[in-house]
Design goal:
Blueprint (H helix, E strand, L loop, with lengths): L2 E7 L3 H12 L8 E4 L41 H16 L8 E7 L7 E6 L5 E11 L19 E4 L13 E5 L3 H12 L3 E5 L6 E2 L5 H15 L8 H5 L1 E2 L2 H8 L9 E5 L2 E4 L4 E3 L2 E4 L37 E3 L8 H25 L2
Parallel strand pairs: 1-2, 1-5, 5-15, 6-14, 7-8, 7-14, 9-10
Antiparallel strand pairs: 3-4, 4-5, 11-12, 12-13
Helix pairs in contact: 1-7
The chain binds flavin-adenine dinucleotide.
Flavin-adenine dinucleotide binds next to helix 1, strand 3 and helix 7.
Length: about 375
Amino acid sequence: MPHRRVIVIGAGQAGLSAAHFLARSGLVAGVDFEVFDANPTPGGAWSHRWDALTFGLVNGLHDLPGSSLGPADPHESAREVVKRYYGRYEDEQGLAVERPWRVRSVTPSAESSARFEVTVEHPDGRTRVFRAGAVISGTGTWDHPYVPWYPGAFGGRQLTTRDFTEPEDFVGKRVLVVGGGISAVQFLQLLDDAGVSTVWSTRTPPRWHDGPFDPMWGLDVENRVAARTRAGLRPLSVVAATGLRLTPELRGAVDRGLLVSRGPIEALTDDGVDFADGSHESVDVILWATGFRAALSHLAPLGIRDRAGGVLMADDDVSVVVAPGLFLVGYGRSASTLGATRAGRRAARAAIAATEDAMSATG
Ligand SMILES: Cc1cc2nc3c(=O)[nH]c(=O)nc-3n(C[C@H](O)[C@H](O)[C@H](O)COP(=O)(O)OP(=O)(O)OC[C@H]3O[C@@H](n4cnc5c(N)ncnc54)[C@H](O)[C@@H]3O)c2cc1C
């Protein structure tokens, strides 16, 4: 069974950053460490974003370590910009990402020279098993959309953020957009621009934030998220942590009634929904823009879930307390391109230190 000092799972911002710092410390891709990514192309979750999400619409992409994105056309789709950037980065940095290989499971190793056994699977059905001294998991959230449960059943079309491609798909339909985050807000605007009739539902009133989105604010958000993960709690949804930036454009959309929530759903019906205020709305489509959860099922054999439903993280925000040698990047506090980049560095250093310990322990 091949042995690697470190295995990195996922080649999004977090995994690529970790791989970069492993390489910068002298580890060689394909020899000392391996990067597995389930996607067929570079780009992480960005490679799946919808066509209408142009680069000018995203909040901003932090540079990967050691190579800048450079100027990007705000009218080009964010998907294509990031795919190109990450692809170039992988080549420049010699990261030798293995794709499309999905990590199916990480289990404790029976062998004393390694901590973990990592089973990877190709879409054609081939599998391989590696031993590893440390695992850095940067698998993001895109593979794990969250849809809340409501009583009743809806007879029309339902889809999640993952399945949205372009607003023109919905022309002539009435669409209920559910969710209080930036994706829901962008869908409502795109649909409205395409002449589609919309209704908006949020569980709590929209969390508009018209203060500055400056480094102090960013630090405060990160600290609040870290306080949860260090207590073993599930990270909050992105919008619960950050709020929604109230730009002049969004304020205008609120004023003309587009971005006004009808409140929470009470129940689904065959032709639409009942709202908590007792009103009913008939719709053709429900678009669940209700967020994502961390994609961690490949780590289930390690039993890292806390009773509180989250993963108990150490104060460095990358080490999993109950599984020495396992590091999560892009999780909790580091779930942004900036946070993921920084976490990659911390995790790479910690993984190197953890495997030095293991190597000296095994003599
Ligand atoms: C709609 C939307 C817009 C966003 N806009 C911004 C923004 O403007 N700025 C910002 O900083 N952040 C933004 N974010 C958050 C941003 O996507 C993340 O912070 C960051 O890009 C995530 O990087 P990541 O490496 O953690 O995960 P991902 O980009 O999700 O990468 C994870 C990778 O792991 C792979 N993978 C998953 N499971 C496995 C497995 N079992 N085996 C092998 N590979 C696996 C996936 O295929 C993927 O390639 C946005 C998020 C969403 C949903």
